[in-house]
Write a structure and sequence with these properties.
The chain is mostly helical. Helix content is about 55%, strand content about 5%. The chain has a two-stranded antiparallel ribbon with strand order 1-2. Helix 6 packs antiparallel against helix 8. The longest helix has about 40 residues.
Length: about 180
């Protein structure tokens, strides 16, 4: 937001809020300028572009809600238990309050991560299947090309198991070499 508005620490930012409390529908909104004390970069465009942090007393005065807050943030030691804490808070606070956790607040990101995880699993599975079919087809072609050599080995007294071990070792070396190169 600071980059888009070309602001830096020490500049003044004017906040605008609708004037709903007891005002006529066409009344002017409330405005107030605040000096910028610090800039932050969370790394999420939604937050970086749309959040301004004020001291609680200044926000209460600007929004005309003395001794009240529209939200309270609770930081947990284990973020994976946020849903459990949200359910506990809902049961203790009652119907007048609406707790939500970080997963709900960032539902679009969580859905994107889930979709990405599923797509990556599918892509990797397909890559492995293609590689396996390539190895199998190359071994089949190797056996087809070597039928005369197999007949010679069998004539010289090699057992079917020994011939199979030769091709097994050949297939294993192709697989290991392909894995190492890949």
């Amino acid at each position: 937001m600071a980059q888009k508005l070309k602001l830096k620490v020490g500049d003044r930012l004017t906040l605008v809020a609708p004037n709903f409390q007891g005002a006529a529908p066409n009344s002017l909104p409330r405005t107030r300028g605040y000096a910028i004390g610090a800039l932050f970069d969370v790394g999420m465009a939604e937050i970086d572009a749309g959040y301004v942090f004020l001291p609680l007393a200044a926000a209460q005065e600007f929004f005309r809600v003395p001794e009240a807050a529209s939200g309270i943030e609770v930081v947990l030691d284990n973020p994976e238990r946020a849903a459990d804490f949200r359910l506990l808070a809902q049961s203790r606070l009652g119907a007048g309050y609406r707790p939500f956790d970080w997963q709900q607040a960032n539902a679009s990101i969580m859905n994107a991560v889930t979709v990405e995880r599923n797509v990556m699993f599918l892509i990797l599975t397909l890559i492995i299947l293609v590689a396996a079919f390539n190895i199998i087809s190359s071994l089949i072609m190797l056996v087809k090309d070597k039928t005369r050599d197999i007949a010679i080995l069998r004539t010289m007294g090699a057992s079917p198991g020994a011939v199979m071990r030769v091709f097994f070792m050949s297939g294993a070396s192709v697989g290991v070499l392909g894995t190492v190169i890949g």
